[in-house]
């Protein structure tokens, strides 16, 4: 009877492991602080860029490298660092990632020229790639009880969903009241808290027994991701037809195909096929890839609209996003704690994607003189609900059922999808916006050239981007509906650890 009740609570082996860490909720707080730091840094630095450019006197063409340097190192090393966490211990890589990220942030904040800033951002990406999968895999291996696991992933999902919007507020406040440098220095504070907490609370982590590093796999996937991210970044700053763009994208695609073929033959694969061949996990990775590209349209172009067209300050635009942040945080918790155990991930993804699509369609009604309450608040609330539902299931579903030896690389796969989706979204939506603006001006040859025409062209480009985002979200709803299994998550046969199997046997005996 005990075994049956345990199984009904979340799969045949979904029971509370014996000897659960009594400090696990404090560990969750440490992981949440680390995750918040990584998510905030992406948005905060975007707001700091104009001020940094004026202070260090680098060109607009060079400005993209402050973002691209981070994206290249982060995206290229995620799978390698995820597997490294499994091989040498997640506690070690978590603490090393925190210390390195803090050191790179301090150097970036103290930068006296452009090369120093870009180098610091590249180092941030390296240590971010070490930190992000380590944090998520620690969460996945610390919480085994289904109800506790749901709450823990609800908190993680809320941080992931709300962190980007919160970064707009923090970045605006720091840039306006202190200096752009504090957008880097703030990471030192977050990292110090997390390092102290992690060192005191996180115990020794098991390593993958007999595991070896797949060096050819590391070379193929890291170079493939580097080429793809660099290619998409190049498309955003130049054109899709530029040889440096399509050659890089083609090379990246071929390298990743070679990586996939090698993983089926490697003795110790970097990304074991068993991790990605599960439908639910594969569906979660595709979901974060698709949503990552479209969500970029919300954060970037909506901020452009508020600041450039409506004249909002950085602080005011960040404050305007707070309702979305609040709703996404609430829905991520509700989704993970209440909905995911009952209905599973598929309805959550489909509903979240369709809510986001409807919010994007609603945003296409903006004009040069739109009011916040009449044109922006409603779509932001709907979008927050949609993002909360999506992020409320991604982390839990993307790591569900994996053995502890694969937790790091499964976590890295989630971050890789998000990074690649963001890079694709940056390139695609920037290109679409630029083309729509040019077409609008060309389609009004008799209009008086001046600020009014260019403002109208900008608003038209934003609306066009929002239509495309709506289409991407609808695609995500279709993909999620097809890929994800119906019903609550169920542990695959043989996926339980020896410890969990022993607990089931003990319960049966009792």
Task: For the structure shown, list the relevant keywords.
single chain, 510 residues, mainly alpha, Growth Hormone, Chain: A, 2 domains, 0% strand, disordered C terminus
Describe the protein's architecture and organization.
The structure is a single chain. This protein is 80% helix and 0% strand. It has 510 residues and is mostly helical. It has two domains: 23-205 and 270-491, MFS general substrate transporter like domains (Growth Hormone, Chain: A, Up-down Bundle), CATH 1.20.1250; 214-269. Helix 2 runs antiparallel to helix 7 (182-201). The radius of gyration is 23 Å and the shape is globular.
Record the SSE blueprint.
Layout (H helix, E strand, L loop, with lengths): L1 H9 L13 H33 L3 H29 L1 H20 L4 H29 L3 H32 L4 H20 L13 H23 L5 H21 L9 H4 L2 H31 L4 H7 L1 H22 L1 H19 L8 H28 L7 H36 L8 H33 L14 H12 L1
Helix pairs in contact: 2-3, 2-5, 2-6, 2-7, 3-4, 3-5, 3-8, 3-16, 4-5, 4-7, 5-16, 6-12, 6-13, 6-15, 8-9, 8-16, 11-14, 11-15, 11-16, 11-17, 13-14, 13-15, 14-15, 14-17, 15-16, 16-17
Estimate the helix proportion, in percent: over 70%
| H and E string | HHHHHHHHHHHHHHHHHH
Radius of gyration: 23 Å
Superfamily (CATH H level) name of the largest domain: MFS general substrate transporter like domains
> Percent of residues in beta strands?
under 5%
Average predicted local confidence, pLDDT: 80
Number of helices: 18
Strand-pairing-aware structural class: mainly alpha
- Domain count, please report it: 2
Largest sheet, strands/sense/barrel: none
CATH architecture of the largest domain: Up-down Bundle
Count the E strands: 0
Oligomeric form: single chain
The coarse silhouette is: globular
Flag low-confidence runs.
Answer: 1-18, 492-510
At the fold tier of CATH, the topology name of the largest domain is: Growth Hormone, Chain: A
How widely separated are the two ends?
9 Å
CATH class of the largest domain: Mainly Alpha
């Amino acid at each position: 009877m005990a075994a049956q009740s345990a199984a009904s609570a979340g799969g045949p082996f979904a029971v509370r492991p014996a000897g659960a860490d009594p400090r696990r909720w404090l560990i969750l707080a440490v992981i949440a602080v680390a995750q918040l730091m990584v998510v905030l840094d992406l948005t905060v630095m975007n707001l700091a860029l104009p001020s940094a450019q004026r202070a260090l006197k680098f060109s607009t063409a060079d400005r993209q490298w402050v973002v691209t340097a981070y994206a290249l190192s982060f995206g290229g090393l995620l799978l390698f660092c995820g597997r490294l966490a499994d091989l040498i211990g997640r506690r070690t890589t978590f603490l090393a990632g925190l210390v390195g990220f803090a050191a790179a942030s301090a150097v970036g904040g103290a930068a006296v020229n452009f090369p120093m800033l870009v180098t610091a951002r590249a180092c941030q990406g390296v240590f971010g790639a070490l930190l992000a999968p380590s944090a998520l895999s620690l969460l996945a291996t610390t919480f085994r009880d289904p109800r506790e696991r749901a709450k823990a992933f609800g908190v993680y999902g809320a941080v992931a969903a709300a962190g980007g919007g919160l970064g707009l507020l923090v970045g605006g406040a720091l840039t306006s009241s202190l200096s752009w440098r504090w957008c880097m220095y703030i990471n030192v504070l977050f990292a110090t808290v997390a390092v102290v907490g992690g060192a005191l609370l996180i115990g020794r982590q098991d390593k993958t027994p007999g595991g070896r590093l797949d060096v050819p796999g590391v070379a193929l996937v890291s170079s493939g991701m580097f080429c793809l991210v660099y290619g998409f970044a190049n498309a955003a700053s130049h054109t899709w037809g530029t040889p440096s763009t399509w050659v890089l994208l083609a090379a990246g695609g071929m390298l990743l195909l070679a990586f996939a073929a090698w993983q089926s033959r490697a003795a110790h694969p970097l990304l074991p096929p068993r991790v990605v061949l599960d439908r639910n996990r594969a569906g979660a990775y595709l979901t974060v890839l698709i949503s990552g590209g479209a969500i970029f349209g919300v954060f970037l172009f909506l901020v452009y609209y508020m600041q450039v067209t409506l004249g909002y300050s950085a602080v005011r635009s960040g404050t305007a996003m707070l309702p979305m942040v609040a709703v996404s945080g609430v829905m991520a918790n509700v989704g993970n704690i209440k909905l995911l155990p009952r209905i599973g991930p598929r309805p959550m993804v489909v509903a979240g994607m369709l809510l986001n699509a409807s919010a994007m369609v609603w945003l296409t009604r903006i004009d040069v003189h739109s009011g916040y309450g009449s044109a922006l608040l409603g779509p932001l609330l709907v979008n927050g609900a949609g993002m909360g539902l999506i992020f409320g299931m991604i982390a839990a579903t993307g790591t569900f059922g994996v053995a502890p030896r694969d937790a790091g690389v499964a976590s890295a796969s989630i971050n890789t999808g998000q990074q690649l989706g963001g890079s694709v979204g940056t390139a695609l939506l920037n290109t679409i916006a630029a083309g729509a603006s040019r077409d609008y001006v060309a389609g009004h040859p008799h209009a008086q050239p001046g600020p009014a025409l260019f403002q109208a062209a900008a608003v038209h480009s934003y609306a066009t981007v929002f239509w495309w985002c709506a289409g991407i979200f609808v695609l995500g709803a279709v993909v999620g509906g097809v890929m994800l299994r119906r019903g609550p998550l169920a542990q695959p046969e043989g996926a339980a650890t020896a410890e969990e199997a022993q607990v089931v046997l003990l319960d049966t005996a009792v």
